[in-house]
């Protein structure tokens, strides 16, 4: 069978249903399974927290798309992150996190994991030397987001993998912004890929989900043990929605990238915009690394508005086709003010974002309509 991404997205883990021939994995909306005599499991399934056929289809699909050996699907991206923390860390261990991490990831370390004795510090992961300087004796994980949220910073995955491994730490890459269609961290040396499948993988703003994918089957087993022990699994319908979304990931992503690139050009030339963050722009500090490790530059664009916070909020309020809302990665375009919305929990910390920043999730609507809306919103 062809191993190209587009083919795997549609077929990996999704053979026709053996019972009926259904070409799409059915939604196995079931909690328990009849046993043929005590312990006689028909398909290996006994209880749907431990495993469910629809979730298995998604988990196998995700592993194939990331080029990993084991995929695990969770109730949300943060549930996936939490499972990883509690599998990989014990009190006293240390984690390096990026200085522009997703707000919820930052909150998980600062407000939850810290109470359980996990130590963390932030580093500018776009500078491999800064990651090296942040390592401690008990650093077990180096956590990276590339492109990062909301400033679209780029981290050289292969370079940071070498530094982490040199210190006996594992490299975790949050691949939510890129998706495996644009970037495959495991092939670049990462140990764990994290996803909020809520975003590009689901792609239609109709499901909340998360995933982990690993190359090491032993680590995969440990994670599966914790996934079952803690229980924040993806339900069958949610797993099915993500599987359905993934089938069109490649074609959606091509359009997201094309539209975002035009949006970034428009913003760069606009007099009301003081700075544009998009790795596809030649002037972006991570452009060369992004060009090396990504197929294209993604659908997220952030920018700063002349006139400060009030002006940035006004742009968000005036947008019409760009819907004012949190989240990202759906077919519809979204606009938001990170300082007051997605990243409000990072206020006053090293991860605070500029108050004149606006973030766009550029959807797959008509390019002309999107550009016209932004032009009118900028005034
Ligand atoms: C949304 C997001 C998460 C958290 O995922 P949820 O599905 O909302 O729990 C983690 N990382 C990034 C980069 C995100 O955008």
From TrEMBL:
Protein keywords: Pyridoxal phosphate, Transferase
N6-(pyridoxal phosphate)lysine: residues bearing it: 199
Keyword Cytoplasm (UniProt): no
Entry GO CC: cytoplasm
CDD domains assigned to the protein according to its UniProt record, in alphabetical order: CGS_like
GO MF, any single term: cystathionine gamma-lyase activity
InterPro entries: Cys/Met-Metab_PyrdxlP-dep_enz, Cys_met_metab_PP, PyrdxlP-dep_Trfase, PyrdxlP-dep_Trfase_major, PyrdxlP-dep_Trfase_small
Root EC class: transferase
Cofactor: pyridoxal 5'-phosphate
Pfam families: Cys_Met_Meta_PP
Signal peptide stretch: none
Reaction catalyzed: O-succinyl-L-homoserine + L-cysteine = L,L-cystathionine + succinate + H(+)
GO-annotated biological processes: cysteine biosynthetic process via cystathionine; transsulfuration
E.C. number(s) listed in UniProt: 2.5.1.48
Family: Belongs to the trans-sulfuration enzymes family.
Record NCBIfam families: PRK07811.1
Name used for this protein in its record: Cystathionine gamma-synthase
